[in-house]
Amino acid sequence: MTLSHHIIYICIAQYGIRKLQNKKMQTMSFDSTVSTIKERLLERFAHAKGQVGPGWKDQLAASYEYFNTRQGEAVMRSVSQAHSNPKRGHVDRIEMVTIALEKLANIQNTPTV
Hints:
Blueprint: H1 3-27, H2 37-52, H3 56-63, H4 70-84, H5 91-104
Helix pairs in contact: 2-5
């Protein structure tokens, strides 16, 4: 057996092991009752938004310079859409708006570990 044949056999064996590991990960079951970080952030967002009131976007823009920009306005719109459709919105944007709203509403949240 040549060196190149030996290398090919090693690569095939490693591929098989990776394939088995991936299959094992796919069959693992996860607790579906635990909400995702995004879901928990959206719940916090809804609570803070309710506390601040219907003019929450205007209040954020008045309190934080960033939210008074085009980009800040786009972030608020994105989070608002994510609240309606959880498949939308990025977690970092949701977190940014949620934390700012919680500060406006004087809501103190302890970090979740």
